């Protein structure tokens, strides 16, 4: 075990596996990851699974899946606290031997009575130190048949302070901190203690975590000091609020990162959006993962809570969709077409992506719209046919079919040129031809640009569907 400061930056993400990877957790993971990458350091994944009632293997998997989706690869771990119990016991024994921790035989009822007494005296409720060894103090006789807890011998004077990487200087009066229980009567270590031993053993240099842990930090610092460990730097990230200013929760929509995959968000867009939620680099809204790593700096993390903005997320996602190449998009959209009972191989999906991607906000929207090219044709409903496939419109479509059959090439440009010629000849406006064409060939009134749609559907199919109108 070394206690000297390692020269390399080492950060960790330490989720408790009690549910999916939520947005706040993902953002904390992203900041820890980006900080490590920026400093060419090491990013560690640690699973804090000591709460046996709430931790599940499914939740561990959900966290790992979320991290994998966001592409936040760790360099060490995952380490599981439940597999480190022997190590925690060893440190507890060491602290007992060194006198930085002690056995306390007060029963929970007795401790409650001490708290009540303090409260009645207008003081902060706390353990009164009955079993805390002091020079010259005689401890009470050990009660028979009672298993002790182990308490940390917290300093009783002075302040514990740190310069938070995000919040600035923070100080706690040591008198406010109780002698923390570090092991229960059955010997199992408690939460704060496991975190301390892990951060020490894993030589964590920078702890970036949610600000719900600010109150734990002075306790952890004091235990680290008692162990002679080098202290990490701490940075506490403010929480994420919903658009209404309340703490982000299910009421505001999906809070599990993986749900955003299901809804058709690109992981690149999610990383970009999450990074901007509480961190900034000038006015840059769109940046690559590489730029994030290059620019990441805890000084640019905001002290105030960030607000979830679904519209902005959609805007970022639309940007990434637009800038993803068609083949790559097709690969990502194909499984979503299968889910919709479509056949992604029924068309040139990459070309379809090229046609649709400029106005899509999610991959799901792309899949919905691409279904036009991926499902068997269903003729338009009667009312649409009655409205748009009038005898005049049908005559126009037959003229179109004849000329289409004669085109040299079946390309968007050729088809567009033909449509234009026909409109001029017949003295018509675009919708007069385009809408009947859409209704006849696609079964629907609205589609992307008609020339491109017809090109993608293919000449034979288009002619077949126009021919069917004759019957
Ligand atoms: N397991 C804690 C949580 O999920 C994080 C502890 C830490 O980062 O120190 O909130």
Write the layout of secondary structure elements.
Elements: E1 10-13, H1 23-38, E2 42-47, H2 57-70, E3 76-80, H3 85-98, E4 101-104, H4 108-120, E5 149-152, E6 159-164, E7 168-173, E8 181-183, H5 191-201, E9 206-210, H6 216-226, E10 233-237, E11 240-241, H7 257-262, H8 267-276, H9 289-295, E12 306-307, H10 310-322, H11 326-339, H12 349-356, H13 363-374, H14 382-388, H15 391-406, H16 412-426, H17 430-442, H18 450-457, H19 459-467
Helix pairs in contact: 1-9, 5-6, 8-10, 11-12, 11-13, 12-13, 15-17, 15-19, 16-18
The structure holds glutamic acid.
The site of glutamic acid has 8 residues, from strand 9.
Describe this structure in words.
By secondary structure, the chain is mainly alpha-helical. It has three domains: 214 residues, HUPs (Rossmann fold), CATH 3.40.50.620; 50 residues; 89 residues, Arc Repressor Mutant, subunit A (Orthogonal Bundle). 46% of the residues lie in helices and 11% in strands. The protein has 19 helices and twelve strands. Helix 15 crosses helix 17 and helix 15 packs antiparallel against helix 19. The chain is elongated and about 110 Å long. Bound molecules: glutamic acid. Glutamic acid binds next to strand 9.
